[in-house]
Amino acid sequence: MKVLITGAGGFIGQALAAALVEEDKTVSITLTDIVEPAAPDSSKPIIRCVEADLTYQDTCDSLLTKDLTHVFLLHGIMSGAAEADLELGIKVNIDATRQVLDTLCRANPGVKIIFTSTTAVYGPPPSPGFPMTEANAPSPTSSYGAQKLISEILLNDYSRRGLLDGRIVRLPTVLVRPGRPTGAASSFASGIFREPLNGEKSILPVSKDLSLWICSPRTVVKNLIHARDIPAEKYGLGSRAVNLPGVTVSMHDMLAALKAVGGQAALDLVEEERDAATERIVESWPAKYDTSRAKQLGFADDGTLEQTVQAYVDSYGSKKT
User: Pick the catalytic residue: 122, 144, 235, 289?
Assistant: First the structure.
């Protein structure tokens, strides 16, 4: 198995690479990002790390070779950043993605592509609490959602034509991410836990009544690997896009989970400071999904919010005394 992961400098890319090595010690993996990504410590002998700007054709030609068996497309300009810089979002989320797909059509037709999309492809639900499914028409109200939807449509058509074998997974908000905040509008959700559990202040920029569709990093990685292994015929003649399982939680739920794990001292480090731009983007995302299709395809359910937060503490520690 020979794998390429784009956008591999991020946490999910790093966790995915480590999981692939754990699964198969003989796998060959190339990690790429705009800045040369690191390799998981335990897997350096079989991982190649490359600084790569996928907007350049020469770069794509050198990376997207005929011997690849799987390509995980994780690169992208995230929701908040894509909204702030439309041109950059189009360049990375649409133009670079199309260039990757077109290059693979020529160099490695039929290769499996696992493309990470987003539930931001949907606009607000028809009514509060309405459980969205893949049958609901996407109507994004952010540039990020629109850009991801455009790439979804292109990969779907290439798959229909037999040019590539695409698997499109719409990710929930991933929580809790370690490391520094990302350009995602929902980045604050991880920050609500990460910073206070590290003894630092965090900002809650949205109403406590707002809810999110979330999933733990472990389950996201598990489901990315599962997407790789689904027989193409199981998707049928319809869309390759699948809404991944997750859990609906409100900001009240998140703050209660923070207190349960980190105590009142951690909770006191969260400051409410509403940000209209962030709130407008995030509140447009549906917070509840019917994931029957994902389950029929064998994708894994996530655990509870409390289990997710505890797993983060077990892995990365807490300054709670």
Answer: 144
Report helix, strand or coil for 148: helix
C-beta contacts of 307-311 below 8 A and 24+ residues apart: 307/216, 308/175, 308/176, 308/214, 308/216, 309/176, 309/193, 309/257, 309/258, 309/260, 309/261, 310/261, 311/216, 311/218
- pLDDT (tens digit, 9 = 90+) per residue, 61-117? 999 999 999 999 999 999 889 999 999 999 999 999 999 999 999 999 999 999 999
Q: Please write the tens of the pLDDT for every residue from 165-186.
A: 999 999 999 998 888 877 788 8
Write down the number of H helices and E strands in the chain. Answer: 12, 12
- Dist. CA 157–CA 84, nearest whole Å: 29
Half-sphere exposure of 4 (CA within 13 A, CB side): 27
**Rounded distance between C-alpha atoms, residue 122 and residue 298, angstroms:** 23
Among the listed residues 149, 164, 160, 166, the one whose alpha carbon sits nearest the alpha carbon of residue 114: 166
Is 144 assigned a catalytic role?
Answer: yes
